[in-house]
Write a structure and sequence with these properties.
Length: about 325
């Protein structure tokens, strides 16, 4: 009844509602609040960017707040010329691509297997995987295990430990259980094997949840630096971009401590290093953010549907 009082049937058959004064006030307030919130989320990236293209001296003096001061792009040119950063970028990209693809494929296949009632010890294996989400042996046993497997100072130390992701397997399993069983039964009647069903039916229909866990995996691999710090200490060529950023941040803090301990007076070389480290820190931070910002919009349309359906049942 309320809809009939407020609505009017248009020529195309769509009911259009007239907004009252209260509706307009609510809409304006609602949009204003979300616009302010969006600006609050966007401003840190904007602030970081304008500092990377501003004069380094103005940046270190805190004179860059709302707009660039002394626009220059030498920081990005220096970044491209730095061989250690380019090598770290290569390692980060390879780690993210290979780690994400292997994790997604493993999660999809294992998630499909644990939905099969005829799988041997299905419930036991599934529960063991779930237990590992809440209990682990700790850093030292984990490191000893990785070392015994020969994965220290080895690129595959980034990939192999992350292939099996229990949380993602649970999401995929729940999503696959929402797919009508008749599709798989008809394929088996036509003589299809489990692998053929998985390849031809399960994978194409599971794109939303696979895109969801791909986002989780890509962001996790791209941002990780603790495993690099622990496992790759003897192989600088395998340092990731995030770990180099951590090292630059640590170096800057050490230089600032030296400057403070000397009463604010320090030699020119140390001061130049401090300025350069601050510029590198901001520029590398921007470089680590851009790839994820570029990839995320393409997967966002799958994300909401996948995470909602995958989280309905456990």
């Amino acid at each position: 009844m309320l809809g009939k009082k407020k609505g009017q049937n248009s020529e195309d058959g769509i009911i259009r509602y007239k907004m009252s004064a209260g509706d307009w006030v609510f809409t304006i307030i609602n949009y204003s609040v979300f616009a302010i919130f969006a600006l609050m989320c966007f401003f840190p990236f904007y602030y970081l960017f304008i500092n990377t293209i501003s004069d380094n001296q103005a940046c270190i003096q805190g004179r860059v707040n709302w707009y660039p001061v002394g626009v220059q792009f030498s920081n990005y040119v220096s970044l491209l010329n730095a061989t250690d950063l380019l090598q770290a970028l290569k390692i980060s990209v390879l780690r993210t691509l290979i780690g994400t693809v292997t994790m997604v494929l493993a999660s999809a296949f294992v998630g499909y297997l644990v939905t099969k009632q005829e799988m041997f010890a299905r419930k036991v294996i599934y529960r063991i995987m779930v237990i590992t989400m809440y209990f682990n042996a700790g850093l030292i046993p984990w490191y000893m295990t990785i070392q015994m497997l020969g994965l220290t100072n080895n690129f595959w130390g980034y990939i192999i430990p992350g292939i099996v992701a229990p949380y993602n397997i649970i999401l995929v399993k729940t999503y696959i259980e929402s797919i009508p069983a008749e599709l798989e039964e008809s394929a088996h009647i036509d003589g299809a094997s489990y692998m053929q069903v998985f390849k031809s039916i399960i994978l194409p229909l599971s794109k939303p949840i696979l895109a969801t866990i791909a986002i989780f995996g890509a962001v996790g691999n791209w941002n990780a630096f603790q495993d690099c710090m622990v496992l790759m200490s003897g192989e600088p060529k395998l340092y990731t971009l995030q770990y180099l950023l951590y090292r630059y941040l640590t170096m800057e803090n050490n230089l600032e401590s030296i400057m403070n301990s000397q009463g604010g007076s320090v030699n020119t070389d140390a001061l130049d290093k401090a300025l350069n480290s601050r510029a590198v820190e901001y520029t590398v931070s921007m470089a680590t953010i851009i790839p994820i910002l570029l990839v995320y919009p393409f997967l966002m349309r799958y994300f909401e549907k996948g995470i909602m359906i995958g989280a309905v049942k456990g």
